[in-house]
Specification:
This protein is α/β, with parallel strands linked by helices and 337 residues long. Helices cover 36% and strands 20% of the residues.
């Protein structure tokens, strides 16, 4: 049965990106309705869309709600069955939607991502998502094609479709009803790692997340916050701690979280040693705010519906930090999963 499809692009002051990348989305997505969800832009984004891209549907939020709230608010006006969450700095390719849609013939598949390559160096995987995301049992994320700062060239080594742990928010297709069933994006995240948390809840509710590399897109990345920005460091560490706490049950949470906090503090002091004191402060502030939110009961545990206290099978039981830094396993194919 053919499913209705919406391509949804969240925009904030991204007129230049829309001019550059929206034409490829319109040209190569004939089977989809294209929505632009605007987070109260102050540039000429809305005027541009009305004048030059009238075939798209413009949804204007009443405030800038960040990535998480922006999508949660905007998607209330979208009724299609499959929702493609697409960053405004993504260049799509001819036929990119068909393999992704095919993945949903399996009714247990609730989310899927394509192969994501770097738009500026198209032979390389892109940092944010690459060829499908995973986490280890402390919640540290990595990808097929990218582990920490090591980014591989795409040589077809990950061209098989496979079940993954998380699909990248840069380009993710999700069932609208499942997105709503698990509560959408967690608003407390604001931005960064919210898609990993979403995919964890999706799997805890009995569904699967996939990567289908037969679909290829190119992502610029870092247009909102670059990896060098301490604010991104803050969000990544705070949201990682929040995600691990809210999705982990049983007594293991105490020693598991203590170990994670210790490793994160090691990372913080490495920032200090490397003369990036702003990043050190960002990690410390991330944990101060995490414990403030925890004490203020602002972090809500997700009630696992199907799997109980079990981790999804796509979680790596080995520590990626140990494998990467101590054992020198820099590529996904070298890991012991």
């Amino acid at each position: 049965m053919t499913k209705s499809i919406a391509v949804c692009i969240l925009n904030y002051n991204g007129a230049q990106l829309l001019r550059q990348f929206l034409p490829s989305v319109i040209q190569f997505s004939p089977q989809a309705k294209v929505y632009i969800i605007d987070n109260q832009s102050t540039d000429d984004s809305c005027e541009l869309l009305r004048n030059e891209f009238a075939e798209t549907c413009l949804i204007i939020n009443d405030d800038n709600y960040g990535f998480t709230g922006g999508y949660n608010h905007g998607l209330k006006s979208v009724n299609e069955e499959l929702i493609v969450l697409l960053n405004s700095d993504v260049e799509v390719t001819e036929g990119w939607l068909k393999p992704l849609i095919t993945s949903f013939e399996d009714e247990k598949v609730a989310a899927c991502q394509p192969k994501i390559l770097a738009q500026r160096q198209k032979e390389l995987f892109e940092y944010a998502g690459a060829c499908g995301g995973y986490i280890d049992w402390l919640g540290y994320p990595y990808c097929r094609g990218r582990i920490f700062e090591t980014i591989e060239a795409d040589k077809g080594q990950y061209d098989q479709a496979t079940q993954i742990f998380w699909a990248s928010g840069a380009c993710m297709v999700v069932r609208k009803d499942v997105f709503e069933e698990v509560g959408g994006f967690d608003l407390s995240f604001f931005a960064h790692m919210e898609e990993i948390d979403l995919c964890w809840r999706i799997q805890s509710s009995g569904y699967k997340v996939m990567c289908n590399p037969a679909s290829i897109v190119y992502h610029v990345g870092g247009e909102t916050l670059s990896r060098e920005n301490p604010r991104k460091t803050y969000f990544n560490f705070r949201n990682s701690a929040t995600m691990l706490y809210k999705n982990t049950y049983g007594s293991s949470i105490y020693w598991k979280f203590s170990l994670k906090m210790l490793l994160d503090l090691v990372a913080a002091f490495k920032f200090w040693k490397d003369n990036t004191f702003d990043h050190f402060k960002a990690v410390v502030l991330a944990y101060i705010h995490f414990f403030r939110d925890l004490g203020g009961k602002r972090i809500t545990k997700y009630e696992q519906i199907v799997r109980g206290n079990q981790l999804p099978t796509t979680v790596n039981p080995r520590l990626i930090v140990i494998q990467y830094y101590l054992m020198g396993r820099k590529k996904f194919t070298n890991l012991k999963n």
